[in-house]
Amino acid sequence: MSAPAETCEQIKTLLPWYANGTLSDEEKLRVTRHLHRCPLCRQALIDALHMRRLIRRSLQQLVTETPGATSGEGPLARMVLQQLSRHLQVEMLGRLLVEAGSDTAASGQLQDIYSVALWRWIPPALSRLLRQHVA
Amino acid sequence: MDTGQAEVENLIKATALGDERAFSQLYRTYYPRLLRYALVRLNDRDAAHSVAQQVLVAIWQGADSFDGRSRPDSWIFGIAHHKTVDEQRRRDYQSVPVGPEQMSENLSAPSGGRPLRQVEHRDQLLRALQQLSPHHREVVFLAFYEDLPYQEISEILDIPTGTVKSRMHYAMNHLRRLLPRGGGGD
Question: Which pTM was predicted?
Answer without folding.
Answer: 0.67
